[in-house]
Specification:
The structure is a single chain. By secondary structure, this protein is of the alpha/beta class. The protein folds into three domains: 193 residues, NAD(P)-binding Rossmann-like Domain (Rossmann fold); 81 residues, Orthogonal Bundle (N-(1-d-carboxylethyl)-l-norvaline Dehydrogenase, domain 2), CATH 1.10.1040.10; 124 residues, Rossmann fold (3-Layer(aba) Sandwich), CATH 3.40.50.720. It has an eight-stranded mixed β-sheet with strand order 3-2-1-4-5-6-7-8, sandwiched between helices. Strands 10-9-13-14 form a four-stranded parallel β-sheet, with helices on one face. A two-stranded antiparallel ribbon has the order 11-12. Strand 5, helix 5 and strand 6 form a beta-alpha-beta unit. It starts with 15 loop residues before the first strand and ends in a 14-residue tail after the last helix. It comes from Streptomyces violaceorubidus. InterPro entries: 6-PGluconate_DH-like_C_sf, NAD(P)-bd_dom_sf, UDP-Glc/GDP-Man, UDP-Glc/GDP-Man_DH_C, UDP-Glc/GDP-Man_DH_C_sf, UDP-Glc/GDP-Man_DH_dimer, UDP-Glc/GDP-Man_DH_N, UDP_ManNAc/GlcNAc_DH.
């Protein structure tokens, strides 16, 4: 069947869509498409991931868990590791990770492989949509030109578009279905086809002139956030030096109805976007010898934040006359963000490693992360931290399920709040109520 760029409908029924990559973006996208009436082929190279999805053992919002249960019980959602299955699809949506390597340069391994496979197995009339964040020109380099080399006429017998993902994991207010989506097609027919396909999965679809505009918009979004996170942490430290609590100052500034958006301090940036995406922009600008000193400085500040937190913890231990090699330190929350189980790029990993390197006996409490490896050391979630003696407790990520009232007791251990929220009250210690997210806590 051929995908009609003027309609989501094909022969009176929904299209068959192959979603390549079933991670934090691909799986919700696949479920939204299934919910909208499409038949979805979920393609992922990881047998473990496919097994977890089949069992429902994945980190999703309750809404998406319900969608997964419904989809799994029907006949319009199937899982496969076979990349050639995309040949059966009217549309292909590529949702693979785009991390950075140890040198903070783009790691395009998964993206290049997924795009090459999509090009190899492309069929006439097919729509291919790339959602993975990357450098400006990725869609043209990895899809448009290779398809032309295969003999296709892009925007006539195959359609190509870039539509960056906008997913805020763990946030029920910002589900993809409630969020506007950008679409930049390789031509007008490609734009219409992609907009028709994705319309049921977003609050509104906003066409932009070309894939490059959509690619740069995504990089701009997350670079903006990275810079403001660095600024929030720097000004929070300034407040600390001046004897002020940062959060009341931020809330006071936020009463201005224009020209200001509140960002809150935290232990650093984590997750799949903020620590990675801006480096794609810097990498590309470096190739054309264009400097972006403000962005580079902000990224360096964010990268250095966990080390500053680690040193602050060691300073507190020293002030309490507790040698680091005898210290028992508990970290509250190790995922990068409240309400999710994802530890990718989490500042907690570096903080734990730094404290352990100084000789401290480290542990963590995070019911969403049962176990964790820090270097050669295997750690496990401590379910009852209030029953153990600690020389220092570091508040890193406070999940809604955390009850920290034990830290309000008169005999409670010293607390280092990386979010600089001020004295911990019983009201704030119960399930994180009224606590704004940390600056680097969103994806």
């Amino acid at each position: 069947m051929e995908f009609k760029p003027d309609s989501f409908e094909i022969d009176g029924s929904g299209p068959t869509v192959a979603v390549v990559g079933l991670g934090y973006v691909g799986l919700p996208t696949a479920l939204a498409l299934t919910d909208a009436g499409a038949t979805v082929i979920g393609v992922d190279s990881s047998p473990d991931r496919l097994r977890d999805i089949a069992r429902g053992a994945v980190d999703l919002l309750p809404l998406h868990h319900a969608q997964l249960a419904c989809a799994s019980a029907g006949d319009r959602f199937r899982l496969t590791p076979d990349a050639t299955a995309v040949r059966e699809a009217d549309a292909v949506v590529i949702c693979v990770p785009t991390p950075v390597d140890a040198r903070r340069e783009p790691d395009l391994t998964a993206l290049s492989s997924a795009c090459a496979s999509a090009v190899e197995h492309a069929v006439p009339g097919q729509l291919i949509v790339l959602t993975s964040t990357s450098y400006v020109g990725t869609t043209r380099d990895l899809l448009v030109e290779p398809l032309r080399a295969r003999g296709f006429t892009v925007d006539e017998d195959v359609y190509v578009a870039f539509s960056p993902e906008r997913i805020d994991p763990g946030n029920e207010r910002h589900t993809p279905e409630r969020t506007p989506r950008l679409v930049g097609g390789a031509g007008p027919r490609s734009s219409r086809a992609a907009a028709d396909l994705l319309a049921p999965t977003a609050s509104v679809v906003r066409p932009v002139p070309d894939p490059e505009t959509a690619e740069m918009a995504k990089l701009w979004e997350n670079t903006y956030r990275a810079v403001n996170i660095a600024l929030a942490n720097e000004l929070a430290d300034a407040c600390h030096s001046l004897g002020l609590a940062p959060v009341p100052v931020i809330e006071a500034a936020a009463t201005k109805p224009y020209g200001f958006m509140p960002f809150y301090p935290g232990p650093g940036v984590g997750g799949h976007c903020i620590p990675c995406d801006p480096h794609y922009l810097l990498w590309q600008l470096g190739k054309v010898r264009q400097q972006a000193p403000l962005v580079a400085t902000a990224l360096a500040a964010n990268s250095g934040r966990p080390a500053r937190i680690t040193q602050r913890a060691l300073d507190l231990l020293e002030a309490s006359s507790v040698p680091a090699r005898e210290a028992r330190v508990l970290l509250i929350g190790v995922s990068y963000k409240e309400g999710v189980a994802d530890v990718r790029e989490s500042p907690a990993l570096e903080i734990l490693a730094g404290l352990a390197a100084a000789g401290a006996h480290v542990a963590y409490c995070d019911p969403l992360v049962p176990s964790l490896r820090v270097g050669a050391q295997a750690l496990h979630h401590v379910p009852d931290p209030h029953t153990r003696p600690w020389d220092l407790v570091v508040l890193n990520t406070v999940h809604p399920v955390h009850d920290l009232t034990w830290l309000c007791a008169a005999d409670a251990p010293p607390v280092l709040d990386t979010r600089q929220r001020g004295p911990l009250t019983k009201a704030a210690a119960r399930a994180g109520t009224g606590v704004p997210p940390a600056a680097g806590a969103t994806a």
